[in-house]
Amino acid sequence: MRLEKLHALFLEHPIICTDTRKIVENCLFFALKGPNFNGNNFAKDALEKGAAYAIIDEKQEEAADNCLLVEDVLETLQKLSIFHRNYSSAKIISLTGSNGKTTTKELINEVLSKKYNTIATKGNLNNHIGVPLTLLSIKNDTEIAIVEMGANHKKEIAFLSNIAQPDFGYITNFGKAHLEGFGGVEGVIKGKSELYDYLISNEKYVFLNADDDIQRDKLGHYVKKFGFSKERPDYYNITFIEANPFVVIEVEDERIETQLIGKYNFSNCCAAILMGKYFNVAMDDIKSAIGSYQPQNNRSQIIDKNGFNIILDAYNANPSSMTVALENLQLMDAQEKTLILGDMFELGSDAEKEHQTIADLAKNLGFTNVLLIGENFCRANTSFKKFKSFDDLKEMLIKNPIKKCTLLIKGSRGMALERVLDFL
């Protein structure tokens, strides 16, 4: 089927579904494949549930007229998203980085939506399927689309950049995330910088944290850039006031009190402020957007429960984000502090070393009440209590409840440490 014809059908049925459990009336069902499923086998079910058309790449015995056969469903989805991106007049802001992508994306959206019709990546749909779905959510009246791009190996950001074709881009930071796929920190820097490579080669605009030596050096004398800094006079100045526990910022003599904990969220706020400034959003609106934003989905959430002051940061973890989380807790005013730390995934051959480093850091920062969960942390040489599985931790929590305290809960998504809340 020609792409132009498929796009015309999409304009008539502008909702994409890839899961028959979530079919929306008159949607287009794309029969994607995965390691454990084949969407082609569910095309008939999708149509019976109300899909207008099913896009398939395997002939079905009972294929109806509204089953559209293509060579490759995933590739067709990606090509359709590129076609729609170029059909739309919306400006695209892409962002990537090791830590803080989703929070930064949401802050940018909060700020820019004060003046413009915006859409942004939902949740963390930031891969080779999520980016196309985000682009296909652009409506006729969308003025700015904020597209988050994730990666766990080199060439992935380059691939996603060629799909999104951003007009603007921002990299949050370069950290120790997905070291297994990237082959080390240098691989992370090279992989994430593929966004810079795209923007520079296409003469697009770059936003940057000018206090990050890597970002500043990589952009060199590139002209189309706009950066923020705490002290460099040739960049837009934003001042960090404190994070005890919430981040407080000063910009253009305006004090912004956020609901985000941790100094590590300062640069995330700065990126959103910088883009608001570039796109001429009024400072009062920028201040309101940043000040009212509250994190959700287990990302640095502050929860008061049964006398506990909980920092729930269980959405993801890597050595960089774990380090700043511990450093932030050490600076907080609280008499009793307890840490429940879960394994960090996708570290490859660096896993043992990095988990040992975090255990050592917790000790050096003066923490005494530390519970470590997971096979990697169990290999660490430390006097802290270690639990091979969550069930082992659960058993201990039931028999020996934690005393009321300020409690940091942090680990990789696969550890699902938010379950701790049920046993406090």
Structure description:
With 424 residues, this protein is of the alpha/beta class. It folds into three domains: 3-70, 3-Layer(aba) Sandwich (Udp-n-acetylmuramoylalanyl-d-glutamate--2,6- Diaminopimelate Ligase, Chain: A, domain 1), CATH 3.40.1390; 88-292, UDP-N-acetylmuramoyl-L-alanine:D-glutamate ligase; 301-423, Protein-Tyrosine Phosphatase, Chain A, CATH 3.90.190. The chain is built from 16 helices and 22 strands. The strands form five sheets. Strands 8-9-7-10-11-12-13 form a seven-stranded parallel beta sheet, sandwiched between helices. The chain has a six-stranded mixed beta sheet with strand order 17-18-22-19-20-21. A four-stranded parallel beta sheet has the order 1-2-5-6. Helix 15 (375-378) links the parallel strand 20 and strand 21 (385-387). The longest helix is centred in the first third of the chain and has 15 residues, at 73-87. The protein is globular and about 65 Å long.
